[in-house]
Amino acid sequence: MVFAIDPGSEKSAWVIFDEKMAPVKFGISKNRALIKLIRNIASAVGVKTLVIEIVKSYGNVMGDSVLQTVEWIGRFQEAFGPGKIVRLSRKEIVTNIYGHARAKDKNVRQAVIDRFGGKEKALGSKKNPGSIYGAKKDIFSALAVGLTYFDSYSHEFLS
Q: Which domains can be identified in the chain, with CATH numbers?
């Protein structure tokens, strides 16, 4: 199983994927709560890999919020412990999911929905929920993090 995180300065989106690339559980949690979740759920359900989006500056100035996110990324990695950790840049993720690095969040969201079979199949409805029913906001980015891992590292995952 794979635990994918789109980190933030106060809250982070996360998804747990099974071996078939299907999301098992997802949410947005306060970072302190997410550390507890990582420690408890990772070992309980057999998560072997943590995949996390990392920050790259590309020469840009970083504000306090970005620096706080960087601190949380380190804390999430430490909480995960001795398992495999894969770090992916935003550029790598959006290029994989959308096809070029200048994609916006709405482009990533739509590409993720398409990847899971389109709006009807992926999201579904309350009566007939799809595989990512209830996903919102940054959860789509966390889904993209996990999908990029499967696309780029599936040969390692399956071995």
A: 2-158 (3.30.420.10)
